[in-house]
Amino acid sequence: MAEIVRSPLLEGLPHGFSTRGGLTSDDVLPGAPLCKLVQIHSADAIKLREPPSEPREGDALVTDRPGLLLGIVTADCAPVLLADREAGVVGAAHAGWRGAHRGVLENTIEAMESLGALASRIEAAIGPTIAQASYEVDGGFRDQFEADDGRFFESGQGDRLQFDLPAYVAHRLGRAGVGRIDDLALDTYAEPARFYSYRRATHRQEPTEGRQLSVIGLRG
Fold this sequence. Notes:
Layout: E1 4-5, E2 15-18, H1 25-28, E3 34-35, E4 45-47, E5 60-63, E6 69-74, E7 78-84, E8 89-95, H2 97-102, H3 104-114, E9 123-126, E10 136-137, H4 139-142, E11 153-155, E12 161-163, H5 165-175, E13 180-183, H6 198-203, E14 212-217
Parallel strand pairs: 3-6, 4-5, 9-13
Antiparallel strand pairs: 1-2, 2-14, 5-8, 6-14, 7-8, 7-9, 10-12, 11-12
């Protein structure tokens, strides 16, 4: 069986972050349909009560219905799995820098709250994503952020900067009122035998199609 990474914070809930070996619904919630989106680096969060009949665009899914498995795919962007156990509401968000900056995490939390969740009860796990040491950016990238976001940037080689995506994601979650956050601190770029990385593949001029799948659901 392929390795599946799980968060101690979400222990007891059907969830998992895949590695290069992938995962299936039966590895996490046997018999559940896997619900995914056409991801577009947006801030759109979609509420699901049943499997979609046709592909929908967006970058986060939430549900309060047992037996559905929510899935998002990433290869450097941050996969975020969220749950309010008391309300019986879960969510999965694709949070690259664009989506996080545009508010996908806040919109995911708002969608969960519309189903009865409370931000202060939500537990959120940040799965394998590119780490600051591997994420080199330029000044133009930095200029797209607020002045007080400087804490997420460190000086790199020459005039380059290193961006801390998982810390930025955790910041956005905390600012939205999420009660508990678990950053698994797994760097997709730095572990080629374990994870796909779009940026690493681009640098090496390798195929860039590989993705990790991250899923969460509710038992019936």
